[in-house]
Model the fold of this input.
Amino acid sequence: MSAYILVGVAWPYANGPLHLGHIAGSYLPADIFARYHRLFGSNVLMVSGSDAHGTPITLKAESEKVEPREIVDRYHSSFLRSWDRFGISFDLFTSTMTQNHKDTVHDIFTMLLQKNYIYKDKMLVAYSVDFDRYLPDRYVSGTCPHCNFDQARGDQCDNCGQTLDPVDLINPFYTREYKNYPVEIKEAEHLFLRLSAFQDELNAWINDKTTWRSNVKNFTIGYLNEGLRDRAITRNLEWGISVPVEDYEDRRIYVWFEAVIGYLSASKEWAQLTGDKDAWRDYWENPESRSYYFMGKDNIPFHTVIWPSMLLGYGGLNLPTNVPANEYLGVEGSKLSTSRNWAVWLDDYLNTFDPDPLRYYLAATMPETSDSNFSWSEYVRRNNDELVATFGNLVHRVLTLVHNNFKGCTPSGTVDRLLAEKANSTLVQVSDSLNSSPRFKEALGHAMNLAHETNRFLDYRAPWKQVRENIEDAADTLASALYSISCLKVVLYPFLPFTSQKLHEMLGFSNSIESNGWEINPPLPSSPLPHPAPLFQKLDDEIAGEMVAKLGSNAK
Ligand SMILES: [Zn+2]
Done:
């Protein structure tokens, strides 16, 4: 029976366009992982959606003087276009504005309330006398009590990553239209999630995770060692999901509590859409099924502590198998910043360049265990040296030799034993690197090694001479190279899906490469091959300088 693999990807706030930090942090690794497992033959369900609630949305709506829904609709449709253009293959990308999501949130909320994991208590909240309103956490700024960063937000410190409450902040203030106003702290009744009840179970659960990335595991252990505090999960807001409790009409469920439930509600929505409304259960209720959550490091505690607590409290649903969170991607040596507009925006990139060279570069420098950097000159260098020179030229010279010397049909020859063994072991190595605790750079390294090895093989055999001297030797060499290229098509597919499909067709196949499976299937001898065309375009070195100049002139 093939495995069931749930791939959950962090829900982006629908308040702005996507940049390369988002892509390298979660969407690309999740997509590579999902594509590998689909080709391998597993049942994969990859879900996410627009986070429609929360103050990032209302802040943006207030600044544009429009309704929050208008902001969400605008960016949700832009996300869908971006996934399509960049090849991020969601099985469902929905939003937290659906009735299904609201029902699923109410179901979990009510169960936790009945089991006494949610309770009423008084709490201190931020309030502005000047505007006669309660202030959502993110509207409040101040000094972080952990690291003294003086621009910490009321929900989280961007400097040290600690989650915060506005009352934790030293010297809290509220900024509105470039002016700072004092913040008063008042007492109010709210509903709390009893996180402290899950401390022991989570301690034991995390200690078991021997294959997790050490940065994710250590962050989580540090978080748990501070002792879990119960947290308020309602707020005085108008925008968000209603609280299914009497006398709470003026309050909403806090966004971090409901957004993580999106993984489950999206799975249910997907099942409805497939026509089998119970299909989600295979991914959530079968203890043999595996679930992986992809996100940037700022989101770790929500997926390794809070969501697992909610799942434990609810009961009967699988906890995360692995949370391979990434570190941050910088741009041209500096920290990426949307407020300073120091970022490369995905749509801008796609308006000028092809998706696969960026997928390749971001995978090759993925911030898996430490921060990494995007630079345009490295992008151009890797495109030209690695994609064009190593992989693209390999394919082009083999297919051109076949075309010119074997009447456009694959030669019947004997595949070299050593090269075949190298290809066969590459298939296994890439699979091992991607299977359960994904190491993307390592997987891509194995694949590119095979391309290098095949180039060395061709240089040694020199089939361009063999075709004049001994056509049977040439047939052996080219059949060997075609075997290796047929392996590269498969092992590079998760990274370069558009290119692999193109190569699949250049090798004479008319179906989707997804039906090939995780196997080496070279074209049969004497199969006609279409005219070869280059897989990649060489980029002018000057492009890097132009792109850096554009980045600098757009920055604030
Ligand atoms: Zn801090």
Summary: The chain is about 45% helix and 15% strand.
